[in-house]
Amino acid sequence: MAAPRVPWIDRAVVAIGLASLFSDVGHEMATAAMPALLASFGASSAVLGWIEGLSDAVSSFAKLVSGLYSDRLARRKPLAVVGYFLTAAGMASFAFATQSWHVLVGRVAGWLGRGARSPVRNVLLTEATTPETYGRAFGFERSMDSAGAIVGPLVALLLVATAGVRATFLLTVVPGLIAALLIVFLVKEKPHAPRPKASLLGGFSRLPPRFRRFLLGVGLAGLGDFSNTLLILWATQAWTPRFGLERAATLAVGFYVGYNVVYTLSCSVCGMLADRFDKRYVLAGGYALAVFPAAALLVPGDSFVKFAIVFGASGAYMGAWETVESSTAASYLPAEVRGTGFGILATVNGLGDLLSSVLVGSLWAVSPTSAMLYVIVMSLGGAAVLALTPAEA
């Protein structure tokens, strides 16, 4: 007799997915236009790398604190709501930027909110589904998030052409507020026993050994996971001599939309694979995929085919990374340290983003070959750690 199908989607899962969709529409509208704004200030890839890296560092700290603090609370949901509001405000502040450091302040504020909400959102999603369907639930949430990254840049292109850059940044607040309201009204939090004396050291000591080994592989691969806004900047810079800054920036955003189309499909496919096969090997394969865009960037020239490979392969591997990392963590973490575990996972990723964005952005300014070889080594190293970690009963 065939095993019964396990339902994996309900109102809470849909609401969390829609919140990710709308929030991502807002901050991707800002992200798509941000490289062109920085280019108008004369900022280099190193400056963008520092903006992204520092923002990710602040986000990582917020994720760690939020995850730990959420285990102390009887109700976690308000932390997520505040985080969605803060992200919306940070992205809208780009409308008033006249220098690079203004963009840094807005990005940091937005990513502070993003960090505060992420572990709580993952806990809420974990509690809304079952261990047998974590992959599909997280794949759905990531697909909705990446669908927002398709819609956001397209909306940005339309608004920039009709209303201007400043108005576009201001309007990013609308989808951000919708995301917060979806969590407020449609997600019912399940009760859990708060741990008012929870500490970081105590929480880390309670994490399963398998989860700690998993963090090692995640951290190593994360050291090569630079921000995709660098891809937009590099494409813009490569095409500016041929097309001019405005058209080059528009083309780069168009390719970024293609990245997110691939990413959306990858999230769903990888979520299903993670429920069917050993998550370690699915994730290791995702890490290894990062070799392809890095190798393509080493090819001379500014052809559309080259950048199609870069953006497409990047979307494919990021769908695997984000979906399977979260669903793997959900399967390893006991309920009493779930917030702390997701916070530590997010912090490991964020610190990797900080180092990789700064290092890759700075290395690229000096030697693109060195930058991409570094990415390849880190990605394959993370894949090896995941693949060679023995399974536990």
Compile the SSE list and pairings.
Blueprint: H1 11-40, H2 45-72, H3 77-92, H4 100-127, H5 134-162, H6 165-171, H7 173-186, H8 200-205, H9 209-222, H10 229-243, H11 245-276, H12 279-289, H13 291-297, H14 304-332, H15 338-366, H16 368-388
Helix pairs in contact: 1-3, 1-4, 1-5, 1-6, 1-7, 1-10, 1-11, 2-4, 2-10, 2-15, 3-4, 3-7, 4-15, 5-6, 5-11, 5-14, 9-15, 9-16, 10-11, 11-14, 12-14, 12-16, 13-14, 13-16, 15-16
Describe the protein's architecture and organization.
- The chain has 393 residues and is mainly alpha-helical.
- It has a single domain, classed as MFS general substrate transporter like domains (Growth Hormone, Chain: A).
- Helix content is 80%, strand content 0%.
- The protein contains 16 helices and no strands.
- The radius of gyration is 20 Å and the shape is globular.
- The model has no long low-confidence stretch (mean pLDDT 80).
- Keywords: Membrane, Transmembrane, Transmembrane helix.
- InterPro entries: MFS (IPR011701), MFS_dom (IPR020846), MFS_trans_sf (IPR036259).
- This is MFS transporter.
